[in-house]
């Protein structure tokens, strides 16, 4: 099996309106992606949305607004996301570091490097690549726990996160374009990650895939 085989199978089965939201992640290209990448760690997205609502009701409209909140205030607003004291500390520090280093979110989008993001406390590879892909429009694939669940079932073993990411990114564009039309690599990788998440949300029950997923993966596994 190659990367395009997995993409095409998921693209056929997943029900998601990519015409309405071609990049899948809510608020693509905005500072909310940075906040979401931190808050979604070890919690459901529904809880992140509750935190977003609290932040918006408190008047947050920029990274500057987040940076200007006291940590206790920020922790209270993001409480639905869990681990709120730790996340508040890390999110506050990240926003301040972004502004200190780049001056604005717009400059951050254009100039941030993966190396710099990885150096920030509390950001692992998945969070970093989510920010790069969805906030900064970079051509990079996000590899999350759902992805590794699929790899585990297919008996695919990678020595590192980046090796798995490179396998996913090594996808036959011509095959993909026949199914979805000609799209940028950024949109392709955003969609690919979205397909994996949406499929697993529907067919991964606890630690096990349901019968539909097992049958589907058995057909494409070589």
TrEMBL record:
Entry keywords, A to Z: 4Fe-4S, Endonuclease, Hydrolase, Iron, Iron-sulfur, Metal-binding, Nuclease
Any Pfam family matching the protein: HhH-GPD
SMART domains cross-referenced by the UniProt entry: ENDO3c
InterPro entries: DNA_glycosylase, HhH-GPD_domain, HhH_base_excis_C
A GO BP annotation: base-excision repair
Protein name: Endonuclease III
Tree of life domain: Bacteria
Source organism (scientific name): Campylobacter hyointestinalis subsp. lawsonii
rRNA processing as UniProt keyword: no
Molecular function as annotated in GO: 4 iron, 4 sulfur cluster binding; endonuclease activity; metal ion binding
Domain HhH-GPD: residue ranges: 39-202
SUPFAM superfamilies: DNA-glycosylase
